[in-house]
Amino acid sequence: MDGCDGDGPAVLSTTEKTAVAAAAVAVVRRFQIESAAGRMKAALSRRRQRLLLQRVLDAPDCITTSQAVVQLCAAIGCVLLPRATPRWWMRRRAGRTWEDLRVCNDATEDYFREKLHMSRRVFMEISEACAPHVQRQVTFYRESLQPEQINTYALTSGVRAVCDVTAAILRVYGEKISWATGVRKQVVLRAFLDKGFPNCHGAVDCTHIYVEKPANTPSENHFDRKHRFSVIAQVVVDLDLRVLDVFVGYPGSCHDIRVIQLSSLLRRAVEGLLFRGPPVTLPGGVTTNGYILGDNGYPPSEWVVVPYGGINQHPDEERFGTKQKVARGAVERAFGRLKGMWRLFLRTHMTNLESLPQQFTAVCILHNILLDAGIEFDENLLWEVDANGVRRRVDLGIHRPPQPVSMLTSTHEAHALRNALAQRMKHV
């Protein structure tokens, strides 16, 4: 700063004047930017209702049953958006289905059940529970969708939303798939006891999820016995069709025995983690801590009880086989309900083999949620009309073994358990 020799006022130099002017301009400019940002955010807030869901995909007003219930998994194999495209929850799309689902009148419940096969209450509960995991903040230029809109888009359009919604469901509802404990365990055990199987905890079976020929992997690995490419899902259910355990991901060429050996079921059974209840004594002094029911695709074991098999059966064996098949039929009914609602898993489709296990597991979780909510299943979903106009039952992807597997690996204890159960049935 330049000054006079005496007591005169100080004078700024040219450099200092330039710096002060630049600072003043910067302050004014920042104020203008912040004011503009505030006005834009206020405008976005006022226009929220009419800016939501600008059309990218022309979602139909009537979604067919093939697009049913929580179709967050129906986006498997969809083409990803170009890298330059904003994340899907920021995209602009028209209301249509979402706006229809927001309408609340006398027809609301029917509309939700037609579109999603669930009540509006159940849908909103799922949306609210997943909200912290799928909601995004409003940006400077765009508004993010609300959680229920994100879920609806995943349910009805089937784009990238599936990845985010699947992750949210697994994170929030992971405990929905678990081995029965406490009061629920007693209900499960009592139901199987009434069918003639004391201390039985569930029934196991596998279903094939048909896929297009996988890329970057040996195709013969996924080529199953029915000459289709598939991935195997092993599921354990109780008599209420509730999924207790699910294991997905191995290629369709794997045998059911191999799948159960690779799953955690075998390890947990051997380590005593599955069947912890008090033992039950059967005829002949045979005791069991617990077991599950399986078909002849599994060898008899101390924890998997299968039918006798064969042609010329003793009446006791035939009686046992009939009752075992009836009880074990819960797995097939569960597959029917699950695949009937999420019909994507009835069709051959392209998919990411890495994400398929998570997506199928998420559908099993939703299956349990709908059971808990008392949502009824329309049996007509188990039928379809083929290209020739003939009505036929849908293929649930259940591959029955052509003949019982070898029992060479079975133990004496395994046969003793089955024989004791058969003997007990004679006196019940």
UniProtKB/TrEMBL annotation:
Localization in the cell: Nucleus
Cofactors: a divalent metal cation
Pfam family, one: DDE_Tnp_4
Domain DDE Tnp4 stretches: 204-368
Keyword Nucleotide-binding attached: no
Keyword Flavoprotein: no
Gene Ontology molecular function: any one: metal ion binding
Keywords: Hydrolase, Metal-binding, Nuclease, Nucleus
One GO term describing the cellular component: nucleus
Similarity section: Belongs to the HARBI1 family.
Name the UniProt record assigns to this protein: DDE Tnp4 domain-containing protein
Taxonomic lineage from the root: Eukaryota, Viridiplantae, Streptophyta, Charophyceae, Charales
